[in-house]
């Protein structure tokens, strides 16, 4: 009998995950036998240089991409064998996304973007969910912006809208892919603080992909990837320690 | 080469249209001059060649507008490449000349193909008509020298259209090589006073000439000439100002589309880039306007002849068959403009989906299922089609009536003032064709859209 991921406090898990592209002599292995779990209620950073496989890992964990071999769970649901429609519905209900850029649907205003996951599901938020969303909107100062279109917002405001949308449906897990990559450092810190608070104050599980040591220093746990393998898994660290480790990693490899 | 397939198809259709029309008109003239007891045959033959000339001008004009729009669409899709060429030192005018050269080649290819297709169609039509004893078996000539005119016109207008359609090349800045290209929003478009003023002036002058044609039409069939110029001018004004005039029609239809994420997004999408949606719509507007114009003119023509026959039975004896043949020929020729419109529509909708890969990926990541995506694209296509059909029906009814009035108002024994006749078969056909086109136009884009992986949402430029 297998232990289900939920029993051991994991909100997402992959085992012996391999992903390769192409075939024959041109085959590229993006992920090579990776096994890792994301803990419930924690802010986890997935770090690594370009081409380390960190984005691929996130895509597969979030059900955006299929693995070559290995197994993937979100909560207690194994998603490895799910069809496209089931996967889509699972993303809609149980996963939130914050991307580096192009997070928002350009034709919808702020409120429309925030409520999009509910609308896609063909329902309106329950009274309880509405209270939660209103709370998020007020906390992030988006109340006066509800009728604005994405192109009328600054980069930081756009990221905040994306965060409200990602947190709004209280998903099992929020995936953030380089969420500060397009922001200046002050706005970037604000966004990171928001994500850290969502984990510490609301118990939201968050997995963030980044190559920026400062961004990773906001996380409670940092998983390092290089050449498609996990090379380090450590707790909260300062930006200096993270940079040190990465420099060492480059030097050794 | 592949991106020019729609333009070559359009040029082919225009050339085939012109060639076939001239051949059929020639055959009709042969038929009439050989028919006994046609006291007015000299007059009828003259009117026929006049009408034929009018149709060819219209066909070439439609082809030119669709081609100019197709080229503008191609340029929009090529912005990145053009910007890169500019970045490494190409001048804007050399880039534009290169596009125009492609236009010339497209025109020549379309002209040659159109000649072959048009002659084949005419031959098939006449053989069928002769075989079914619908028309007498006479020695019809298939190669009157005048068919060189539409062929030449297609080459020249395609060349010109590619030149006009490529003016956007001049707006491409080298810096765009580094980022995604943006099209103008409605507010910006509404603010372009120069272009809108030109459009309004053209419409005003055109309407004036149409009025003149209608008034002159009471005295002479030559009233159709100022009417034709007026029609072309006012319609050019409408086409020029389309990004300004069409979106409101689109908005009205969008509101009627219904609720749900997919329909709502579709309505927003259709409205977001008025230039692009106008380009997509204008082909269909032209097609439907043309079909309606022909049908209303033919319907009115039939009506007038019926009334004239009642008033002067001796003069118009034996015209019944002529009317049937003429309306049949008109209806067959309508198919061409509908085809031209369909090509433009399919091409533009595909392109608009292609240019939104990133956004569709985001929707997929956030939980849009493939079937919701499909509903969205079909709803978008339906919105464009319905709006274009409504606008086209309204415009066509007006132009058709104005044409019939200015050409036939002076007809001997006719009623003078004509009531526009909008045939029921036309409304049925247009609605059915629009439904078919909605589905057809969304097949390729949906296939493309549903093949987009949600992973592209997180891709970095």
If you had to describe this structure to a student in words, what would you say it looks like?
- The complex is a heterodimer of chains A (253) and B (461).
- Chain A has 253 residues and is α/β, with parallel strands linked by helices.
- Chain A has 8 helices and 10 strands.
- In chain A, β7 (173-177), α6 and β8 form a beta-alpha-beta unit.
- In chain A, α5 runs parallel beside α6.
- Chain A is globular, with a radius of gyration of 18 Å.
- By secondary structure, chain B is mostly helical.
- Chain B contains 14 helices and no strands.
- The longest helix of chain B has 47 residues, at 41-87.
- The radius of gyration of chain B is 24 Å and the shape is globular.
- The relative contact order of chain B is 0.12.
- Mean pLDDT of chain B is 77; it is low at 179-188.
- Classes of the chains: A alpha/beta (253), B mainly alpha (461).
- Chains A and B meet through α1, α2 and α3 of A and α9, α12 and α13 of B.
- Chain A: One of its GO terms (molecular function) is ATP hydrolysis activity.
Record keyword descriptors for this entry:
heterodimer; A: 253 residues; alpha/beta; Rossmann fold; six-stranded mixed sheet; four-stranded antiparallel sheet; 26% strand; globular; B: 461 residues; mainly alpha; 78% helix; ATP hydrolysis activity (chain A); ATP binding (chain A)
Quick structural gist:
With 253 residues, chain A is α/β, with parallel strands linked by helices.
Bin the strand percentage of chain A.
25-35%
Radius of gyration of chain A: 18 Å
Topology-level CATH name of chain A? Rossmann fold
Kindly report the average pLDDT value of chain A.
Answer: 88
Uncertain residue segments of chain A: none
* CATH homologous superfamily identity of chain A: P-loop containing nucleotide triphosphate hydrolases
CATH architecture field of chain A: 3-Layer(aba) Sandwich
Largest interface summary: A-B, 33 and 28 residues
What number of structural domains do the residues of chain B give? 2
Taken from the alpha-carbon principal axes, the silhouette of chain B is globular
The CA-CA distance between the termini of chain A, in Å, is: 40 Å
């Amino acid at each position: 009998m297998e232990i289900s991921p939920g029993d051991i406090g994991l909100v997402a898990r992959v085992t012996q995950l391999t992903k390769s592209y192409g075939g024959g002599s041109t085959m590229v292995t993006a992920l090579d036998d990776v096994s890792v779990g994301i803990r419930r209620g924690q802010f986890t950073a997935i770090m690594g240089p370009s081409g380390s496989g960190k984005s691929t890992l996130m895509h597969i964990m979030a059900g955006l991409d299929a693995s070559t071999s290995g197994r993937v769970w979100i909560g207690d649901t194994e998603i490895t064998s799910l069809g496209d429609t089931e996967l889509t519905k699972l993303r809609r209900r149980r996963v939130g996304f914050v991307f580096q850029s192009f997070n928002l649907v350009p034709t919808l205003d702020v409120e429309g973007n925030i409520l999009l996951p509910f609308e896609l599901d063909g329902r309106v938020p329950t009274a309880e969910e509405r209270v939660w969303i209103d709370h998020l909107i007020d906390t992030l100062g988006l109340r006066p912006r509800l009728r604005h279109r994405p192109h009328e917002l600054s980069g930081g405001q756009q990221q905040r809208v994306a965060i409200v949308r990602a947190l709004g449906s209280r998903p099992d897990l929020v995936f953030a892919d380089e969420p500060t990559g397009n922001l200046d450092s002050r706005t970037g810190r604000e966004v990171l603080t928001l994500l850290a608070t969502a984990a510490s104050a609301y118990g939201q599980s968050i997995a963030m992909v980044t190559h920026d040591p400062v961004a990773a220093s906001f996380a409670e746990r940092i998983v390092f990837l290089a050449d498609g393998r996990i090379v380090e898994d450590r707790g909260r660290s300062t930006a200096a320690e993270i940079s040190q480790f990465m420099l060492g990693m480059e030097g050794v490899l | 080469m592949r991106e020019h397939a729609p333009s070559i198809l359009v040029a082919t259709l225009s050339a085939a249209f012109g060639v076939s029309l001239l051949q059929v008109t020639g055959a009709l003239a042969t038929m009439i001059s050989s028919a006994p007891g046609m006291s007015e045959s000299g007059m009828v033959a003259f009117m026929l060649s006049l009408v034929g000339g009018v149709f060819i001008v219209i066909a070439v004009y439609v082809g030119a507008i669709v081609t100019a729009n197709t080229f503008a669409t191609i340029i929009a899709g090529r912005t990145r490449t053009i910007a890169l060429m500019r970045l490494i030192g190409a001048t804007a005018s050399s880039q534009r000349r290169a596009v125009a050269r492609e236009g010339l080649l497209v025109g020549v290819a379309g002209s040659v193909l159109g000649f072959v297709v048009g002659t084949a169609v005419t031959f098939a039509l006449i053989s069928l008509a002769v075989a079914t004893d619908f028309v007498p078996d006479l020695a019809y000539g298939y190669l009157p020298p005048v068919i060189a005119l539409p062929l030449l016109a297609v080459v020249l207008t395609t060349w010109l259209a590619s030149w006009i359609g490529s003016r956007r090349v001049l707006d491409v800045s080298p810096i765009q090589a580094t980022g995604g290209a943006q099209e103008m929003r409605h507010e910006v478009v509404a603010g372009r006073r120069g272009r809108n003023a030109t459009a309004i002036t053209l419409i005003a002058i055109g309407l004036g000439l149409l009025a003149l044609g209608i008034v002159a039409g009471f005295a002479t069939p030559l009233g159709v000439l100022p009417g034709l110029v007026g029609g072309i001018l006012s319609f050019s004004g409408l086409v020029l100002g389309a990004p300004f005039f069409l979106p409101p029609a689109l908005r009205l239809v969008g509101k009627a589309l219904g609720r749900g994420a997919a329909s709502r997004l579709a309505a927003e999408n259709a409205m977001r880039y008025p230039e692009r949606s106008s380009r997509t719509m204008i082909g269909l507007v032209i097609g439907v306007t043309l079909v309606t114009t022909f049908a209303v003119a033919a319907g009115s023509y039939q009506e007038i002849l019926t009334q004239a026959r009642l008033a002067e039975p001796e003069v118009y004896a034996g015209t019944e068959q002529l009317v049937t043949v003429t309306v049949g020929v008109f209806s067959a020729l309508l198919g061409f403009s509908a085809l031209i419109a369909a090509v433009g529509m399919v091409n533009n909708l595909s392109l608009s989906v292609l240019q939104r890969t990133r956004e569709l990926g985001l929707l997929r990541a956030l939980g849009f299922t493939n079937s919701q995506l499909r509903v969205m694209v079909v709803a978008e296509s339906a919105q464009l089609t319905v709006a274009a059909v409504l606008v086209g029906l309204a415009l066509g009814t007006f132009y058709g009536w104005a044409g019939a009035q200015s050409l036939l108002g002076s007809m001997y024994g006719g009623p003078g003032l004509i009531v526009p006749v909008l045939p029921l078969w036309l409304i049925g056909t247009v609605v059915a064709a629009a439904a078919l086109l909605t589905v057809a136009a969304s097949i390729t884009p949906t296939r493309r859209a549903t093949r987009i992986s949600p992973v592209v949402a997180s891709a970095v430029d």
